[in-house]
Amino acid sequence: MSPSDRWDLGRRGFLAGATAVAAAATVPALAHRADAAEVSDAAANRPNILVILTDDQPLETEWATPRTVDWLVDGGVRFSHGHVATPLCAPSRSSVFSGRHARHHGVRDNSSPYNLDQSTTVQRHLQDAGYRTGLFGKYLNAWHNTDNPPHFEEWLLNDPVTYNNGTYNDNGTVRAIPGYSTTVVRERALKFLDKAATDPRPWFAFVAPKAPHAPNTPEPKYANTPVPEWNGRPSVTETDRSDKPPYIQNANRTLDDGRTVRRNQLRTLLSVDDTVQALHDKLADLGQLRNTLVFYLGDNGYSWSDHGWGAKSVPYRPAVEVPFYVSWPAGGLGAGTVDDRLAANIDIAPTILDAAGIAPSPLHDGQSLLGNARRDHLLVEWWHRGPGGNPHTWSSYKSTTEQYVEYYTLHTDDNGQQVGTGEVVFREYYDLVKDPYQLTNLLYGATPADERRLGIPALAAKLAADRAA
């Protein structure tokens, strides 16, 4: 099947989904204080929602998740340009919940989770509309484990987030639970799904294992599983980084470092694949597989020593692009198609509300992925916490063909608020068609005439407009 054929099938699938959603949308929007019985009746035929969010999962990891691929790619839609709006855990998760950029939801770094306006979250909207809501696994960095996560009816919140023998907020009681955390989270999520056999309400489940985040500790049965050999990519073996910002020029991660992280990440993801298969089988047993809208993605990517960098937080593709799968057979998203639109984690909340027939939030920065709405670029940002250090705060205009990046004298203070002069201290521009590994910063040594030829003034203006919106 050609790429154009796949796109046509995907487009028709989404249009079918849009038709189903349009029918659901004929149900009047539910008022915040609607009678509980009315809410339950109106919600009865809406899809269940399952969001599976991994931690630090980059692309090129599908070897470890074959059953996830069988279900959600072969039986759903793969977004070939899936992104996060901020490549850092808490900001990204807040974008999933709120459908907003970090500059709008307020969680710019990993130290300020309480800046999130909980009234804007998708779990609040779904709960108000009669959904049963559950959270299992990691929530937001720096969230106190004695605080219950708002707008969830049930939860097993892992904090501090560990792989073995963790501490959990279990529906309001903080207690230790022995065992491998991915398995613990899986079993509690399955119990939540089991209640669908007797509870007619639609449900929303947020399932968030620690894997494959460092220290990438695999489950004992996978501790020595051989993984395919990997010889890096051009961005890993790049020798001349003189065109990159100083922090990248000084980065020192090697190919062997990248191999180690990759191997351990893949081994931890094998347990995630077990969890996804168990969730699939449970939905099949309950007869709810067809009318469950499922999302699978990472909260950010990760650099396997690309440009010498061995983490996230950078504007380069391995950190900002993530696996992004969606399945909803009853909504037309079950044909095994590829969608080449630019998609992001800010699109999840709008898509969920659209599918559930709930009025969209005017605060959303994202857009529903139902139908065929398309953007030409995405705002991607990251903030440095505290003064000094690297990388500097940056913002980026990112499309499927080019990327323009600005670094600033900005950082977040102890309250997670942005401070600094905002002076631009470094810029990058990459032609992603000719240079997909971002080896050549075309702004290095560029003249004003070169910049005009590359269209930099227009990109800079668009980025400024995005940051001001």
TrEMBL record:
It comes from Streptomyces similanensis. Gene3D superfamilies: Alkaline Phosphatase, subunit A (3.40.720.10). This is Sulfatase N-terminal domain-containing protein. It comes from the Bacteria. The lineage of its organism: Bacteria, Bacillati, Actinomycetota, Actinomycetes, Kitasatosporales. InterPro entries: Alkaline_phosphatase_core_sf, Sulfatase_N, TAT_signal. CDD domains: G6S (cd16147). Residues 47-358 form the Sulfatase N-terminal domain. Transmembrane segments: none annotated. Residues 214-258 are annotated as: Disordered.
